[in-house]
């Protein structure tokens, strides 16, 4: 079986990105290992035992990478965080300081609201329709 295991999210700082992902998004830190070049291998995932994709938090190494921090998808929603309880997670994330760019809306495919991570990347919080 094949699946996409990791997606890279370019960040300014490992520790602030870990804090945002674990405290604001409710992810868990799966790996944080030093690399010989001084970087770190940092992986966060939505929950223990999840079968979905995890994030590799990669600190920007040069001007080109730093220029992409917060704009990895040209202003489009680039990340989709599914939930089984939209109201619970929306309230928890707002209380943790996550910036939502719109009020929750109900679409044929589910309940959704766009939010930004700490760098400005756009995400959907989405509870798929059953």
Main features:
3 helices; four-stranded mixed β-sheet; five-stranded mixed β-sheet; single chain; alpha+beta; 130 residues; globular
Describe it.
This protein is α+β, with helices and mostly antiparallel strands. It is built from 3 helices and 9 strands. It has helices spanning 14-24, 63-66, 86-95, and strands at 6-11, 28-34, 40-45, 54-59, 77-82, 99-100, 105-107, 110-116, 122-128. Strands 5, 6, 7, 8 and 9 form a 5-stranded mixed sheet that branches. Strand 7 and strand 8 (110-116) form a beta hairpin. It is globular. The two termini are 26 Å apart.
**Cα distance spanning the termini:** 26 Å
Portion in beta strands:
35-45%
The structure class reads alpha+beta
Give the overall form. globular
Write a short abstract of this structure.
With 130 residues, the chain is α+β, with helices and mostly antiparallel strands. The protein has helices spanning 14-24, 63-66, 86-95, and strands at 6-11, 28-34, 40-45, 54-59, 77-82, 99-100, 105-107, 110-116, 122-128.
